Protein backbone atom coordinates (compact mmCIF):
# COMPACT_ATOMS: atom_id res chain seq x y z
CA UNK A 1 0.00 0.00 0.00
CA UNK A 2 2.91 2.35 -0.51
CA UNK A 3 2.09 3.27 -4.11
CA UNK A 4 -0.07 6.28 -4.85
CA UNK A 5 -3.18 6.65 -6.95
CA UNK A 6 -1.60 9.23 -9.28
CA UNK A 7 1.12 11.86 -9.49
CA UNK A 8 -1.18 14.56 -8.11
CA UNK A 9 -0.82 13.07 -4.64
CA UNK A 10 2.94 13.56 -4.53
CA UNK A 11 3.40 16.90 -6.32
CA UNK A 12 4.96 19.67 -4.28
CA UNK A 13 2.59 21.73 -2.12
CA UNK A 14 3.60 24.81 -4.10
CA UNK A 15 2.65 23.11 -7.39
CA UNK A 16 -0.70 22.05 -5.98
CA UNK A 17 -1.49 25.49 -4.60
CA UNK A 18 -0.54 27.17 -7.87
CA UNK A 19 -2.64 24.73 -9.91
CA UNK A 20 -5.73 25.05 -7.73
CA UNK A 21 -5.55 28.82 -7.48
CA UNK A 22 -5.08 29.05 -11.25
CA UNK A 23 -8.32 27.06 -11.69
CA UNK A 24 -10.22 29.12 -9.11
CA UNK A 25 -11.05 32.25 -11.17
CA UNK A 26 -12.42 30.12 -14.00
CA UNK A 27 -14.53 28.06 -11.57
CA UNK A 28 -16.00 31.18 -9.98
CA UNK A 29 -16.79 32.70 -13.37
CA UNK A 30 -18.35 29.40 -14.45
CA UNK A 31 -20.51 29.32 -11.30
CA UNK A 32 -21.67 32.89 -11.89
CA UNK A 33 -22.54 32.13 -15.52
CA UNK A 34 -24.19 28.72 -15.13
CA UNK A 35 -25.49 28.48 -11.54
CA UNK A 36 -28.05 31.27 -10.93
CA UNK A 37 -27.71 30.97 -7.15
CA UNK A 38 -24.05 31.95 -7.35
CA UNK A 39 -24.83 34.70 -9.85
CA UNK A 40 -26.86 36.22 -7.00
CA UNK A 41 -24.55 35.29 -4.11
CA UNK A 42 -21.45 36.58 -5.92
CA UNK A 43 -23.13 39.55 -7.56
CA UNK A 44 -20.56 42.27 -8.23
CA UNK A 45 -17.61 39.89 -7.78
CA UNK A 46 -15.04 39.88 -10.58
CA UNK A 47 -14.03 36.20 -10.68
CA UNK A 48 -10.77 37.00 -12.46
CA UNK A 49 -9.52 38.75 -9.30
CA UNK A 50 -10.02 35.70 -7.06
CA UNK A 51 -6.64 34.06 -7.49
CA UNK A 52 -5.42 33.82 -3.88
CA UNK A 53 -6.67 32.40 -0.60
CA UNK A 54 -6.89 35.92 0.78
CA UNK A 55 -9.22 36.94 -2.06
CA UNK A 56 -11.23 33.73 -1.68
CA UNK A 57 -11.70 34.40 2.04
CA UNK A 58 -13.47 37.67 1.21
CA UNK A 59 -16.29 35.83 -0.57
CA UNK A 60 -19.40 34.89 1.43
CA UNK A 61 -19.75 31.38 2.89
CA UNK A 62 -22.85 29.50 1.73
CA UNK A 63 -23.99 27.04 4.36
CA UNK A 64 -26.17 24.00 3.89
CA UNK A 65 -29.23 25.57 5.50
CA UNK A 66 -28.99 28.41 2.98
CA UNK A 67 -28.73 25.97 0.08
CA UNK A 68 -31.79 24.14 1.44
CA UNK A 69 -33.73 27.39 1.84
CA UNK A 70 -33.02 28.39 -1.77
CA UNK A 71 -34.03 24.97 -3.03
CA UNK A 72 -37.27 25.04 -1.05
CA UNK A 73 -38.12 28.56 -2.24
CA UNK A 74 -37.51 27.62 -5.88
CA UNK A 75 -39.59 24.46 -5.56
CA UNK A 76 -42.49 26.33 -3.99
CA UNK A 77 -42.38 28.76 -6.90
CA UNK A 78 -42.28 25.92 -9.43
CA UNK A 79 -38.71 26.72 -10.38
CA UNK A 80 -35.38 24.92 -10.30
CA UNK A 81 -35.47 22.03 -7.80
CA UNK A 82 -31.72 22.52 -7.25
CA UNK A 83 -32.24 26.12 -6.12
CA UNK A 84 -29.99 27.49 -8.85
CA UNK A 85 -26.84 25.72 -7.63
CA UNK A 86 -26.53 23.10 -10.38
CA UNK A 87 -24.90 23.94 -13.69
CA UNK A 88 -26.51 20.82 -15.17
CA UNK A 89 -30.11 20.34 -16.30
CA UNK A 90 -32.16 17.17 -16.71
CA UNK A 91 -31.05 15.03 -19.62
CA UNK A 92 -28.15 12.92 -20.83
CA UNK A 93 -25.57 14.93 -18.85
CA UNK A 94 -27.40 14.25 -15.55
CA UNK A 95 -28.04 10.50 -15.33
CA UNK A 96 -29.16 10.60 -11.68
CA UNK A 97 -30.71 12.92 -9.11
CA UNK A 98 -30.39 12.06 -5.43
CA UNK A 99 -32.12 13.26 -2.28
CA UNK A 100 -30.57 13.89 1.12
CA UNK A 101 -32.43 14.69 4.34
CA UNK A 102 -33.96 18.14 4.24
CA UNK A 103 -34.91 17.46 1.44
CA UNK A 104 -31.83 18.55 -0.53
CA UNK A 105 -31.54 17.36 -4.14
CA UNK A 106 -28.12 16.70 -5.66
CA UNK A 107 -27.25 16.15 -9.34
CA UNK A 108 -24.86 13.50 -10.58
CA UNK A 109 -22.92 14.20 -13.77
CA UNK A 110 -21.48 11.80 -16.32
CA UNK A 111 -17.77 12.41 -15.78
CA UNK A 112 -15.72 9.39 -14.76
CA UNK A 113 -15.46 9.08 -10.97
CA UNK A 114 -17.84 12.03 -10.59
CA UNK A 115 -17.55 12.02 -6.76
CA UNK A 116 -13.74 11.35 -6.85
CA UNK A 117 -13.96 8.34 -4.54
CA UNK A 118 -11.41 6.13 -6.35
CA UNK A 119 -8.55 7.93 -4.58
CA UNK A 120 -9.88 6.97 -1.14
CA UNK A 121 -10.47 3.37 -2.23
CA UNK A 122 -6.91 3.10 -3.52
CA UNK A 123 -5.56 4.47 -0.23
CA UNK A 124 -7.62 1.82 1.59
CA UNK A 125 -5.85 -0.88 -0.42
CA UNK A 126 -8.35 -1.72 -3.17
CA UNK A 127 -6.81 -2.44 -6.57
CA UNK A 128 -8.00 -3.00 -10.18
CA UNK A 129 -9.49 -6.42 -10.88
CA UNK A 130 -11.01 -6.89 -7.42
CA UNK A 131 -14.63 -7.30 -6.35
CA UNK A 132 -15.93 -4.80 -3.78
CA UNK A 133 -18.98 -5.44 -1.64
CA UNK A 134 -20.80 -2.07 -1.45
CA UNK A 135 -23.23 -1.81 1.46
CA UNK A 136 -24.02 1.87 1.15
CA UNK A 137 -27.61 2.68 0.30
CA UNK A 138 -28.66 2.89 -3.33
CA UNK A 139 -32.06 4.31 -2.35
CA UNK A 140 -32.64 8.09 -2.51
CA UNK A 141 -29.18 9.07 -1.20
CA UNK A 142 -26.06 9.16 -3.42
CA UNK A 143 -23.80 7.08 -1.15
CA UNK A 144 -24.14 3.82 -3.09
CA UNK A 145 -23.52 5.52 -6.44
CA UNK A 146 -20.65 7.59 -5.02
CA UNK A 147 -18.78 4.43 -4.12
CA UNK A 148 -19.79 2.42 -7.19
CA UNK A 149 -18.61 5.04 -9.67
CA UNK A 150 -15.33 5.34 -7.77
CA UNK A 151 -14.84 1.58 -7.80
CA UNK A 152 -15.49 1.41 -11.54
CA UNK A 153 -12.96 4.22 -12.12
CA UNK A 154 -10.44 2.18 -10.12
CA UNK A 155 -11.11 -0.86 -12.30
CA UNK A 156 -13.09 -2.88 -9.76
CA UNK A 157 -16.33 -4.86 -9.98
CA UNK A 158 -19.07 -3.99 -7.49
CA UNK A 159 -21.66 -6.10 -5.72
CA UNK A 160 -24.48 -3.63 -4.83
CA UNK A 161 -25.33 -5.06 -1.43
CA UNK A 162 -27.06 -1.98 -0.10
CA UNK A 163 -28.39 -2.01 3.46
CA UNK A 164 -30.20 -4.62 5.54
CA UNK A 165 -30.74 -8.34 4.84
CA UNK A 166 -27.71 -9.28 6.91
CA UNK A 167 -27.82 -13.03 6.32
CA UNK A 168 -27.96 -12.51 2.56
CA UNK A 169 -25.03 -10.10 2.81
CA UNK A 170 -23.02 -12.80 4.58
CA UNK A 171 -24.01 -15.40 1.98
CA UNK A 172 -23.00 -13.15 -0.92
CA UNK A 173 -19.64 -12.38 0.69
CA UNK A 174 -18.95 -16.07 1.32
CA UNK A 175 -19.85 -17.12 -2.22
CA UNK A 176 -18.53 -14.19 -4.28
CA UNK A 177 -15.36 -13.74 -2.18
CA UNK A 178 -14.93 -9.95 -2.45
CA UNK A 179 -11.62 -8.30 -1.60
CA UNK A 180 -13.36 -6.09 0.92
CA UNK A 181 -16.29 -4.01 2.08
CA UNK A 182 -17.43 -0.44 1.59
CA UNK A 183 -20.17 1.01 3.82
CA UNK A 184 -20.76 2.23 7.34
CA UNK A 185 -18.50 0.77 10.04
CA UNK A 186 -21.40 -0.21 12.28
CA UNK A 187 -23.02 -2.33 9.54
CA UNK A 188 -19.72 -4.09 8.85
CA UNK A 189 -19.57 -5.04 12.53
CA UNK A 190 -23.11 -6.41 12.29
CA UNK A 191 -22.20 -8.47 9.21
CA UNK A 192 -19.05 -9.89 10.85
CA UNK A 193 -21.00 -10.79 14.00
CA UNK A 194 -23.76 -12.41 11.92
CA UNK A 195 -21.17 -14.42 9.97
CA UNK A 196 -19.73 -15.71 13.24
CA UNK A 197 -23.21 -16.61 14.46
CA UNK A 198 -23.88 -18.47 11.19
CA UNK A 199 -20.43 -20.11 11.40
CA UNK A 200 -19.61 -18.77 7.92
CA UNK A 201 -16.01 -17.78 7.19
CA UNK A 202 -15.28 -14.61 5.20
CA UNK A 203 -11.56 -15.08 4.52
CA UNK A 204 -11.30 -12.71 1.55
CA UNK A 205 -12.79 -9.69 3.33
CA UNK A 206 -9.53 -8.22 4.56
CA UNK A 207 -10.04 -4.49 4.02
CA UNK A 208 -12.77 -1.90 4.28
CA UNK A 209 -13.43 1.72 3.39
CA UNK A 210 -15.96 3.14 5.82
CA UNK A 211 -17.75 6.46 6.06
CA UNK A 212 -21.07 8.01 7.01
CA UNK A 213 -20.56 7.84 10.77
CA UNK A 214 -17.86 7.87 13.44
CA UNK A 215 -15.14 5.21 13.21
CA UNK A 216 -13.65 5.07 16.70
CA UNK A 217 -10.26 3.40 17.31
CA UNK A 218 -12.01 0.72 19.39
CA UNK A 219 -14.03 -0.43 16.36
CA UNK A 220 -11.01 -0.15 14.06
CA UNK A 221 -9.08 -2.42 16.46
CA UNK A 222 -12.05 -4.83 16.77
CA UNK A 223 -12.06 -5.26 12.99
CA UNK A 224 -8.27 -5.62 12.87
CA UNK A 225 -8.48 -8.47 15.39
CA UNK A 226 -10.73 -10.21 12.87
CA UNK A 227 -8.37 -9.65 9.96
CA UNK A 228 -10.00 -6.57 8.43
CA UNK A 229 -7.99 -3.37 7.91
CA UNK A 230 -10.54 -0.56 8.02
CA UNK A 231 -9.88 2.94 6.65
CA UNK A 232 -12.19 5.92 6.76
CA UNK A 233 -12.97 8.74 4.38
CA UNK A 234 -14.82 12.03 4.76
CA UNK A 235 -17.24 12.87 1.98
CA UNK A 236 -20.57 14.60 1.50
CA UNK A 237 -23.42 14.39 -0.99
CA UNK A 238 -22.78 17.99 -1.99
CA UNK A 239 -19.01 17.89 -2.43
CA UNK A 240 -17.98 14.29 -2.99
CA UNK A 241 -14.68 13.22 -1.42
CA UNK A 242 -13.12 15.78 0.91
CA UNK A 243 -10.42 13.79 2.71
CA UNK A 244 -9.29 10.20 3.22
CA UNK A 245 -7.21 8.05 5.56
CA UNK A 246 -3.91 6.45 4.55
CA UNK A 247 -1.85 3.59 5.95
CA UNK A 248 -0.03 6.17 8.09
CA UNK A 249 -3.15 6.47 10.29
CA UNK A 250 -2.31 10.11 10.98
CA UNK A 251 -5.35 12.24 10.19
CA UNK A 252 -7.03 12.49 6.81
CA UNK A 253 -5.35 13.75 3.63
CA UNK A 254 -7.33 16.30 1.60
CA UNK A 255 -8.58 15.28 -1.83
CA UNK A 256 -6.97 16.84 -4.89
CA UNK A 257 -10.24 18.23 -6.29
CA UNK A 258 -11.19 20.61 -3.50
CA UNK A 259 -9.85 23.79 -1.89
CA UNK A 260 -10.37 23.62 1.87
CA UNK A 261 -10.38 26.44 4.41
CA UNK A 262 -10.99 26.21 8.15
CA UNK A 263 -12.86 29.22 9.49
CA UNK A 264 -14.13 30.45 12.82
CA UNK A 265 -17.69 29.13 13.30
CA UNK A 266 -20.31 31.70 12.43
CA UNK A 267 -17.91 33.61 10.18
CA UNK A 268 -15.93 33.18 6.98
CA UNK A 269 -12.66 34.18 8.65
CA UNK A 270 -9.84 31.60 8.36
CA UNK A 271 -8.32 30.50 11.67
CA UNK A 272 -4.62 30.00 12.41
CA UNK A 273 -3.18 26.63 11.38
CA UNK A 274 -3.93 24.03 14.02
CA UNK A 275 -6.93 25.88 15.44
CA UNK A 276 -10.25 24.06 15.36
CA UNK A 277 -12.86 25.61 13.10
CA UNK A 278 -15.50 24.90 10.48
CA UNK A 279 -14.49 23.21 7.24
CA UNK A 280 -15.38 25.38 4.24
CA UNK A 281 -14.90 23.74 0.86
CA UNK A 282 -14.71 25.08 -2.68
CA UNK A 283 -15.13 22.30 -5.19
CA UNK A 284 -13.56 22.37 -8.64
CA UNK A 285 -16.49 20.31 -10.00
CA UNK A 286 -17.98 22.38 -12.88
CA UNK A 287 -21.31 20.51 -12.78
CA UNK A 288 -22.10 21.48 -9.19
CA UNK A 289 -19.74 24.42 -8.57
CA UNK A 290 -20.06 25.08 -4.86
CA UNK A 291 -17.98 28.11 -3.83
CA UNK A 292 -17.03 28.42 -0.13
CA UNK A 293 -19.57 25.83 0.96
CA UNK A 294 -19.78 25.55 4.74
CA UNK A 295 -19.97 21.90 5.75
CA UNK A 296 -20.97 22.63 9.35
CA UNK A 297 -18.27 20.17 10.49
CA UNK A 298 -15.37 21.05 12.78
CA UNK A 299 -11.78 20.03 12.15
CA UNK A 300 -8.22 21.34 12.29
CA UNK A 301 -5.10 21.17 10.13
CA UNK A 302 -2.40 18.71 11.20
CA UNK A 303 1.11 20.12 10.81
CA UNK A 304 3.75 18.40 8.73
CA UNK A 305 3.65 15.95 5.84
CA UNK A 306 1.96 12.57 5.73
CA UNK A 307 4.40 9.66 6.24
CA UNK A 308 2.71 7.91 3.31
CA UNK A 309 4.45 10.36 0.96
CA UNK A 310 1.26 12.21 0.02
CA UNK A 311 1.95 15.93 0.13
CA UNK A 312 -1.50 17.44 0.49
CA UNK A 313 -2.65 19.04 3.73
CA UNK A 314 -3.94 16.75 6.45
CA UNK A 315 -6.87 17.40 8.78
CA UNK A 316 -7.63 15.75 12.09
CA UNK A 317 -10.96 14.38 10.89
CA UNK A 318 -14.46 15.10 12.17
CA UNK A 319 -14.38 16.96 15.51
CA UNK A 320 -18.03 17.93 15.99
CA UNK A 321 -20.54 20.36 14.54
CA UNK A 322 -19.96 24.06 13.96
CA UNK A 323 -23.61 25.05 14.24
CA UNK A 324 -23.83 25.56 18.01
CA UNK A 325 -27.01 27.64 17.93
CA UNK A 326 -28.55 27.59 21.40
CA UNK A 327 -31.86 28.82 22.78
CA UNK A 328 -31.46 31.06 25.86
CA UNK A 329 -34.51 32.33 27.71
CA UNK A 330 -36.64 31.72 24.63
CA UNK A 331 -34.22 33.45 22.23
CA UNK A 332 -31.88 31.74 19.76
CA UNK A 333 -28.23 32.76 20.07
CA UNK A 334 -26.04 32.00 17.03
CA UNK A 335 -22.26 31.66 16.64
CA UNK A 336 -22.41 34.51 14.12
CA UNK A 337 -23.70 36.79 16.90
CA UNK A 338 -20.75 35.90 19.13
CA UNK A 339 -18.45 36.70 16.20
CA UNK A 340 -20.25 40.03 15.68
CA UNK A 341 -19.68 41.00 19.31
CA UNK A 342 -15.99 40.05 19.21
CA UNK A 343 -15.47 41.91 15.94
CA UNK A 344 -16.46 45.20 17.60
CA UNK A 345 -13.41 45.13 19.86
CA UNK A 346 -9.94 45.01 18.24
CA UNK A 347 -8.39 43.81 21.52
CA UNK A 348 -10.43 40.57 21.43
CA UNK A 349 -8.55 37.52 20.14
CA UNK A 350 -11.15 34.85 20.78
CA UNK A 351 -14.56 34.63 22.43
CA UNK A 352 -16.69 31.80 23.83
CA UNK A 353 -20.23 32.17 25.16
CA UNK A 354 -20.99 29.83 28.07
CA UNK A 355 -24.66 29.24 28.86
CA UNK A 356 -25.11 27.85 32.37
CA UNK A 357 -27.71 27.37 35.07
CA UNK A 358 -30.87 25.33 34.72
CA UNK A 359 -33.49 25.40 32.02
CA UNK A 360 -35.77 28.44 32.48
CA UNK A 361 -33.08 29.98 34.71
CA UNK A 362 -30.32 30.54 32.19
CA UNK A 363 -27.30 32.79 32.49
CA UNK A 364 -24.75 33.78 29.86
CA UNK A 365 -21.06 34.50 30.35
CA UNK A 366 -18.93 35.66 27.44
CA UNK A 367 -15.37 34.47 28.03
CA UNK A 368 -13.00 36.73 26.11
CA UNK A 369 -9.31 36.32 25.36
CA UNK A 370 -7.93 39.87 25.02
CA UNK A 371 -4.51 41.18 24.12
CA UNK A 372 -5.16 44.09 26.49
CA UNK A 373 -8.03 45.23 28.68
CA UNK A 374 -8.62 49.02 28.57
CA UNK A 375 -10.70 50.45 31.38
CA UNK A 376 -14.39 49.83 30.89
CA UNK A 377 -13.96 47.25 28.13
CA UNK A 378 -15.88 44.53 29.99
CA UNK A 379 -18.81 46.89 30.46
CA UNK A 380 -18.79 47.85 26.78
CA UNK A 381 -18.67 44.19 25.75
CA UNK A 382 -21.63 43.54 28.05
CA UNK A 383 -23.56 46.30 26.30
CA UNK A 384 -22.68 44.74 22.95
CA UNK A 385 -24.00 41.37 24.15
CA UNK A 386 -27.35 42.95 24.91
CA UNK A 387 -27.36 44.93 21.67
CA UNK A 388 -26.67 41.88 19.49
CA UNK A 389 -28.53 39.09 21.31
CA UNK A 390 -31.21 41.13 23.13
CA UNK A 391 -30.17 39.25 26.28
CA UNK A 392 -28.06 40.19 29.29
CA UNK A 393 -24.72 38.51 29.86
CA UNK A 394 -21.66 38.87 32.04
CA UNK A 395 -18.12 39.19 30.69
CA UNK A 396 -15.02 37.33 31.82
CA UNK A 397 -11.69 38.68 30.50
CA UNK A 398 -8.99 36.06 30.04
CA UNK A 399 -5.33 36.00 29.06
CA UNK A 400 -4.47 34.93 25.50
CA UNK A 401 -4.41 31.15 25.10
CA UNK A 402 -6.79 30.48 27.99
CA UNK A 403 -9.71 29.09 25.99
CA UNK A 404 -9.61 25.46 24.78
CA UNK A 405 -8.86 24.75 21.11
CA UNK A 406 -12.04 22.80 20.40
CA UNK A 407 -13.88 25.03 17.94
CA UNK A 408 -16.66 25.86 20.38
CA UNK A 409 -18.06 29.36 20.15
CA UNK A 410 -21.13 28.58 22.26
CA UNK A 411 -20.93 26.08 25.11
CA UNK A 412 -24.19 24.84 26.59
CA UNK A 413 -23.21 23.98 30.20
CA UNK A 414 -26.74 23.90 31.57
CA UNK A 415 -28.18 21.13 33.72
CA UNK A 416 -31.07 19.32 32.06
CA UNK A 417 -31.88 17.04 34.99
Keywords:
AMP-dep_synth/lig_dom; 21 strands; alpha/beta; nine-stranded mixed sheet; Phenylacetate--CoA ligase family protein; ANL_N_sf; 417 residues; four-stranded mixed sheet
Quaternary assembly: single chain
The best one-word shape is: globular
Determine the N-to-C terminus distance. Answer: 50 Å
Helicity, in percent? 25-40%
Compute the number of strand runs: 21
Number of separate helices: 11
Widest sheet, order of strands = 5-4-6-7-8-9-10-15-14
Radius of gyration: 23 Å
- Which percent range describes the beta-strand content? 15-25%
The profile of the biggest β sheet is: 9 strands, mixed
Structural class: alpha/beta
Low-pLDDT runs: none
Q: Can you give the mean pLDDT?
A: 94
Verbal overview:
The chain has helices spanning 13-34, 36-41, 53-56, 64-76, 118-123, 143-154, 166-176, 185-198, 217-225, 335-343, 377-389; strands at 62-63, 96-100, 104-108, 131-134, 157-160, 180-183, 207-210, 229-236, 240-245, 252-254, 258-263, 277-283, 293-299, 301-302, 314-315, 326-328, 331-333, 348-358, 361-370, 394-398, 410-412. The protein is an alpha/beta fold and 417 residues long. The strands form 5 sheets. A 9-stranded mixed beta sheet has the order 5-4-6-7-8-9-10-15-14, sandwiched between helices. The radius of gyration is 23 Å and the shape is globular. The N and C termini lie far apart (50 Å).
Amino acid sequence: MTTHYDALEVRSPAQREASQLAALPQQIAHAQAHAPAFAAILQGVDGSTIHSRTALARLPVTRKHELLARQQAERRAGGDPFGGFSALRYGALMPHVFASPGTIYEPEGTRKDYWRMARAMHAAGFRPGQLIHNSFSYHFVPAGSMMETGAHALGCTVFPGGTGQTEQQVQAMAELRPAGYIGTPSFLKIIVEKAAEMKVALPTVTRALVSGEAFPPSLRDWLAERGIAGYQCYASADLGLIAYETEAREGLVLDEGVIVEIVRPGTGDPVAEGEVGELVVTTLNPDYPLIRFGTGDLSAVLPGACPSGRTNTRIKGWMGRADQTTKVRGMFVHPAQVADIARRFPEVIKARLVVSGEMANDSMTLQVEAASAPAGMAQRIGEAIRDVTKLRGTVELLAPGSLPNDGKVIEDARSYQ
